[in-house]
Amino acid sequence: MPLVTVIKRYEREFRIPFYKLLKENLQVHGIDFELIIGQPNKYEVQNIKDALRDNPFGSFITNKYFYLGRNFLSYQNVFSHIKKSDLVILQQSNSELLNYVLLFKRNFNKNIKLALWGHGINFQAKNKDSIAQKFKLLLSNYVDHWFAYNNLTSDILAVNGYPRDKISVLNNTIDVTNERNMYDSITVSEINAIRLEYGIKEGDKVGIFCGSLYKLKRIGFLLEALKMIKQRSENFHFFILGKGEMENEVKAFEESNSQWFHAPGFKAGREKQLFLRISDFQLMPGSVGLNIIDSFYSQTPLVTILNSSHGPEILYLENKKNGLLVNDDLAEYVNSVVEIIGNDKKLYQLKEGCLESSKVYTIENMADNFYNGILQTLE
User: Fold this and answer.
1) Are strands 71-75 and 64-68 parallel, antiparallel or unpaired?
2) Which of 285, 353, 349 lies closest to 317 in space, CA to CA?
């Protein structure tokens, strides 16, 4: 029976439903699956609270880390665990020494197939043409298959010379079944109560920001835009849900604009879904990643700007269909938001686009795409 092994430096709890579906799909075709993980580094562990400590799909191997300031190299000694593996899938990374060892060994042992899973490049890197980024792409060509986060990654790999017929596009996403069920369970009385609590009248439009309050999210730009939007749209309320390094700035803004701007702090679970339920759209001028999936199931189209800090999931935003992607200009951003506040037809069309996208970017489709890529590679 063939064995497929995925090796990750660490993994997070939100991936469990994906691996469960993948394993079930593979077992139907008589293929064994194993996940090997370790722990985050000493800097990451401060922020990553949902890292898996117990691995329900295989082995946990303690990583060795070598630090140079905040930069690091890591190593996982997995060789006793992959002796029977027919396909090993690695996380694409310059900092993981295991990748170099296995790439070297692959040239002498053709019985083990090797694949990479990743973004192609670091989308948060300040310089996309740096030596580190070019080196990452160079190594990316020496594997049997690629599991690309989405079409943006696939295009990057193809331009770099990797064959498209050996790329599986995953359309990376997360399982939002529980979130969607909580969202759908919100009652009319709950909606009326929270609207009354915050003074939101019939006909008012509500915007929301859900995420960490750090500079990469361009919170300063957002607050400046909100002042200008409110000046032109009296029927406007806005919520910020989150915490982070810019909490003080957000709280100070709330004190000056408490009639229409609300910062109730970090919210999760059903409480978060209640705020999404009363919202019409999301404003996030800075880094957009998997949080775009929230905008789809909750039908709160996301308005963001063209910049270089987005994750590859920004590809899921189809401008003027399921969200708005505008130039990095404050006045243009404000104009775009004011337009959808005053144009119910346009806002409705964007909400319908979100609903359609919610059917495409599902954890089931992602698991199917991964499974089909594995079958192709093994065959």
Assistant:
1) antiparallel
2) 353
> Could you report the per-residue pLDDT of 221-247, keeping only the tens digit for each?
999 999 999 999 999 999 999 988 899
Secondary structure element (H or E) that encloses residue 344, with its range: helix 344-360
Convert the pLDDT of each residue in 15-49 to its tens digit: 999 999 999 999 999 999 999 999 999 998 877 87
Q: How far is Cα 196 from Cα 190, in angstroms, rounded to an integer?
A: 10
Q: Which residues contact 363 (CB under 8 A, 6 or more apart)?
A: 17, 18, 21, 173, 174, 175, 176, 177
Work out whether the CA dihedral 103, 107, 110, 111 comes out positive or negative: negative
**Residues composing the chain:** 379
Distance CA 347, CA 222 (A): 20
Q: Which two tokens stand for residue 108?
A: 């002498």
Q: Is the pLDDT of residue 105 over 90?
A: no
Query: Taking Cα atoms as reference points, which of 141, 137, 118 lies closest to residue 129?
Result: 137
For 163-208, write each residue's pLDDT tens digit.
999 999 999 999 999 899 999 999 999 999 999 999 999 999 999 9
| Tokens (6 digits) for 356 | 């359609």
Hey, what domains does the chain have and what are their CATH numbers?
3-173+362-378 (3.40.50.2000), 177-360 (3.40.50.2000)
End-to-end CA separation in angstroms for the chain = 13
Give the span between the Cα atoms of 68 and 89, in whole angstroms.
27
At a CB cut-off of 8 Å and minimum separation 6, what does 246 contact? 213, 214, 215, 219, 220
DSSP per-residue string spanning 117-148: EE-SS-TT-S-TTSHHHHHHHHHHTSSSEEEE
Residues 252 and 61: their CA atoms lie apart, in Å, by 46
Type and span of the H or E element at 261: strand 261-262
Q: Which two tokens stand for residue 73?
A: 């190299």
266 alpha-carbon distance from chain centroid: 18
| CB-count burial class (<10 Å; 0-12, 13-18, 19+) for 256 | exposed
